[in-house]
Each structure stands twice: as C-alpha cells, then as structure tokens.
Amino acid sequence: MAQDNRSFESTLHDIVYSIDTGTGLKIIRVTLFILFLLIIVMLYTATQFRGLTSEEAMDYAQLGRNISLDGGLATKCIRPVSMWKVSERNLDENPQIAGHPDLFHPPAYPLLLSAGFKIFELVGIDPFSLPEGGRATSLPAEQWVILPLNH
After folding, report:
1. N or C: which end of the chain has fewer CB within 10 A?
2. Do 66 and 137 reside in the same domain of the chain?
3. Are residues 37 and 92 in the same domain?
4. Which residues have a Cβ under 8 Å from the Cβ of 147 and sit 6 or more positions away?
C-alpha cells in the first residue's frame, strides 16, 4: 500500500515539476502569449476599424452577401468584359444585368463569407442591418464576419 501511495506522490511531483520548470511551463507561456496577442488584435480592431475601404474588399463582401441571400454568385459590379462574355452566350443582344454572374473573382472566399453570414442568420441576427437613429461606420457583418476571417 505504501508503494502505491509513493508512486502517486512521485507522479504528482513529476507533473508539478513539469509545470513549474519543464514542458508545462513552455506550454503555459505560449498559450498566454497567444491569448495576449488575440486580445491586442481584438482591441485594435474594435477601436480602429472604420469600415471597408478598398473596392476589392467591398466587392468580395457584396458577393458573399449575394450568395447568402440569393444563393448565387451574382454581382452588382458589372464589368465590360463580363458583359461581353455574357452577351456571347445569350442569343439576345442585351446582356443580363439583373443577377449578373461574377466572372472575375474566385468563389472560395465569398462562399466562406456567406457561411459566416448564414451563421448570423441562424442565430437570428441580421448582419446587414444598420443601427437605428444614426449613421454607422460599419455593419455587423463587417465587424463580426469579415474582420475575424481576415486576421
């Protein structure tokens, strides 16, 4: 019986020693450092983000929104080259403007954004609504879906 008790104490001592000076200490330090970095990034983002500023970011965001709402990779930013390509496929002389397919961007990132927007919709939050009574600098979709995916 004494040998089992000593074995447990020895094992417990080894665990405490590992946490105090060995591998456990390294794991704790790395975890705390990563947590500290995440907090700094979140604080910086919360205080300094003023909305999407580049055209490309806005284009990807509207593609993700269109996928989450309509289910298709349609764009409202119509380019002359895509009009030409669509008019080649259509027999009509007028190219399709409403629900114009996006031929410029790869679909993976807009699909990822769309999945984030859908999660908000499942929870019951409209990610595209503006706050009442004032002008917003950013939408909830930008702050809680696009920014975390880009950090």
Report:
1. N
2. yes
3. no
4. 45, 49
pLDDT in single tens digits along all 151 residues of the chain: 444 556 877 788 887 877 777 777 888 889 999 999 989 987 887 777 777 888 888 888 888 888 888 878 888 888 888 888 877 777 766 667 777 888 888 889 999 999 988 888 888 877 777 667 656 566 677 777 777 777 6
**Is residue 87 domain-shared with residue 143, that is, in the same domain?**
yes
Let me know whether 42 and 71 are in one domain. no
Tell whether 87 and 125 lie within a shared domain.
yes
Contacts of 113 (CB under 8 A, 6+ apart): 60, 61, 63, 64, 65, 67, 68, 145, 146, 149
